[in-house]
């Protein structure tokens, strides 16, 4: 089938889902355009800031997109393009978008509280602690997977069979990405010095800085091994976790939005011009050697493009604090996920265009996507090397955006685990003050993330996907409790939450059996890699059962109460 036809079909299906199902949910749950949102009732100029729906949508989309919708579909393409496309569309509309919208809705209706605080209110303090520990373990897996992927994409030295051209492209993309961080800090300092800037002025400054960093990076490539890049990425996310938001993360997120738009526009234009044929096999069977069974592998490999628990942390953690009107929530919560699913379909078409013998080519998902789109753009007269570096820079920037966000969330989850009645260090015992120190919390989080990274993203991705989807299932259960407790329609969440519970526990059990097989049968067990994964897999299952039990107990015993 032609790739352009697949994208057009996806656009129609996703648009219908948003217009009919998304609006139906909004009507069933109830929106009050006249109600004052938390952005107004708790306005502080920092976290709670009333913003236009387009501004909040941009933040939501850039935060949840990351590298997931590119990575997941490309890795899962080994099963064939038909099952990947079906899961992206069905999962995106009836699983992921419902969860994202539900988390945003519940948070806005509860003073902008995060999912952890919502669980404490509707489930209890024990549920909150279990949920926070689960979130912390989950962030370790994200750090490991994306750090390894970024480092592998940037590596230009010590890589087997790498050509001089590819090494140069990797080095340029790496250099631009590092300069991009410098540019973000400069942008943050400019805004701090100047104060409030008009939106068009901010946009011009951001785009100008991106152009300068791109030009310098092309002239000054950084050549290094994968291991060196692992250390550099870890150093960056440490700084991102502890530095003030205004200095690094906020300006970086703002600039990344323009790169994200550039990447999507470039990919769509490339597909329109090249309209490539789908060279992937339609279906490769229910079992693929080296990957496993279609169930549950497909459903945990494609996380962010279909359903992702991480999205709920964004919806309830930041976006809910900036919504200025409840009527904007469907576009932000449901709409952003719909667009992300479309990005996943674009990634599927790209890998389908460059497939070899019916399956994806070798290389990291970032490299495959970048090379594929660069080939399309070359047909428009754009130098292929230039296009490839630009696309590699874009997808790497998205991965780094996911990394700095998740490192900060991981640090905060670790701190909240040990907070008692106060967050004021002056009122804490000595040991509690030490453990909740932001530098210690960040170091301990990155340390375990680094150990998991040693196994490579291929080994970690299945565990990451399982944890991510299990987090989504737990959030869906918690949202069901909220909806039932407050007298709203919640049955639409029952099928997604039960499906994801079955999928994730099956995947976690399979992963545990595979690691135990290496330990007791085949050999090759490495404690720092396999041992840590085994411990985390068992902990995730235990925590998942405990959180699910707490939530289900409340779900079937809850009575109607005020929202």
Please explain how this structure is put together.
There is one protein chain. This protein has a single domain, classed as Amino acid/polyamine transporter I, CATH 1.20.1740.10. The longest helix is centred in the last third of the chain and has 35 residues, at 384-418. It is globular and about 60 Å long. The protein is built from 21 helices and two strands. Helix 3 (53-65) crosses helix 14 (329-353). The mean pLDDT is 87. The chain has helices spanning 3-29, 38-41, 53-65, 68-76, 81-108, 115-122, 125-154, 164-194, 199-219, 226-242, 249-274, 294-301, 309-317, 329-353, 365-378, 384-418, 430-435, 438-453, 457-485, 494-522, 527-555; strands at 287-288, 292-293. Strand 1 and strand 2 form a beta hairpin. It has a two-stranded antiparallel sheet with strand order 1-2. The chain has 563 residues and is mostly helical.
- What share of the residues does DSSP label as strand, in percent? under 5%
Distance between the termini: 49 Å
Silhouette:
globular
CATH superfamily: Amino acid/polyamine transporter I
Question: Mean pLDDT, rounded to whole units?
Answer: 87
* SSE succession: HHHHHHHHHHHEEHHHHHHHHHH
**Major sheet: size, sense and barrel closure?**
2 strands, antiparallel
Name of the CATH architecture: Up-down Bundle
As laid out across the biggest beta sheet, the strand order is 1-2
Please tell me the total number of domains. Answer: 1
CATH class (first level) name? Mainly Alpha
CATH domain topology:
Amino acid/polyamine transporter I
Count of β-strands: 2
């Amino acid at each position: 089938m032609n790739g352009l036809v697949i994208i057009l079909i996806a656009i129609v299906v996703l648009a219908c889902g948003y217009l009919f199902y998304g609006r139906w949910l909004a009507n069933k749950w109830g929106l009050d355009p006249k109600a004052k949102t938390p952005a107004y009732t708790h306005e502080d100029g920092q976290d709670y800031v009333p913003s236009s729906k387009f501004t909040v949508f941009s933040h939501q989309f850039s935060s949840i997109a990351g590298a997931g919708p590119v990575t997941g579909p490309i890795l899962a393409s080994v099963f064939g393009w038909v099952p990947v496309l079906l899961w992206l569309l069905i999962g995106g509309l009836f699983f992921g978008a419902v969860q994202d919208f539900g988390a945003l809705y519940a948070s806005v209706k509860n003073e902008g509280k995060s999912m952890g605080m919502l669980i404490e209110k509707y489930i209890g303090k024990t549920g909150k602690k279990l949920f926070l520990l689960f979130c912390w373990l989950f962030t370790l897996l994200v750090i490991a997977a994306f750090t390894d992927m970024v480092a592998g994409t940037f590596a230009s030295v010590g890589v087997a069979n790498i050509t001089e051209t590819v090494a140069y492209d990797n080095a340029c993309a790496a250099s631009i990405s590092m300069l991009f961080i410098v540019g973000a800090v400069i942008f943050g300092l400019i805004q701090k010095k100047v104060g409030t800037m008009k939106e068009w002025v901010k946009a011009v400054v951001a785009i100008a800085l991106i152009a300068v960093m791109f030009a310098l990076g092309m002239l000054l490539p950084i050549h290094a091994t994968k291991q060196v890049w692992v250390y550099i990425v870890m150093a960056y996310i440490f700084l991102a976790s502890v530095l003030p938001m205004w200095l690094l993360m906020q300006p970086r997120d703002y600039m990344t939005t323009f790169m994200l738009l550039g990447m999507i526009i470039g990919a769509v234009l490339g597909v329109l011009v090249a309209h490539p044929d789908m060279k992937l096999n339609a279906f490769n069977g229910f079992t693929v050697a080296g990957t496993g069974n279609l169930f549950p592998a497909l459903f945990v490999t494609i996380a962010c493009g279909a359903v992702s628990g991480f999205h709920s942390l964004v919806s309830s953690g930041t976006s809910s604090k900036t919504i200025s009107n409840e009527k904007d929530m469907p576009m932000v919560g449901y709409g952003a996920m719909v667009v992300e699913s479309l990005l996943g379909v674009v990634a599927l078409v790209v890998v389908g265009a460059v497939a070899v013998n019916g399956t994806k080519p070798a290389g990291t998902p970032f490299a495959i996507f970048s090379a594929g789109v660069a080939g399309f753009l070359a047909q428009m007269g754009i130098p292929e090397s230039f296009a490839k570096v630009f696309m590699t820079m874009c997808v790497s920037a998205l991965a780094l955006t996911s990394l700095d966000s998740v490192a900060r969330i991981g640090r905060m989850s670790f701190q909240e685990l040990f907070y008692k009645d106060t967050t004021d260090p002056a009122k804490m015992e000595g040991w509690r003050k030490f453990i909740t120190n932001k530098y210690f919390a960040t170091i301990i989080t990155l340390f375990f993330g680094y150990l998991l990274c040693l196994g490579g993203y291929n080994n970690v991705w299945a565990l990451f996907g399982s944890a991510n989807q299990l987090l989504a299932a737990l959030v869906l259960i918690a949202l069901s409790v909220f909806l039932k407790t407050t007298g709203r329609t919640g049955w639409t969440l029952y099928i997604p939450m039960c499906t994801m519970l079955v999928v994730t526990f099956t995947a976690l059990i399979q992963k545990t059996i595979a690691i135990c097989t290496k330990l007791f049968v085949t050999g090759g067990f490495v404690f720092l890699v396999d041992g840590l994964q085994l411990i985390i897999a068992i902990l995730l299952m235990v925590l998942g059962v405990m959180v699910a039990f707490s939530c289900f107990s409340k779900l079937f015993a809850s009575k109607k109460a005020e929202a």
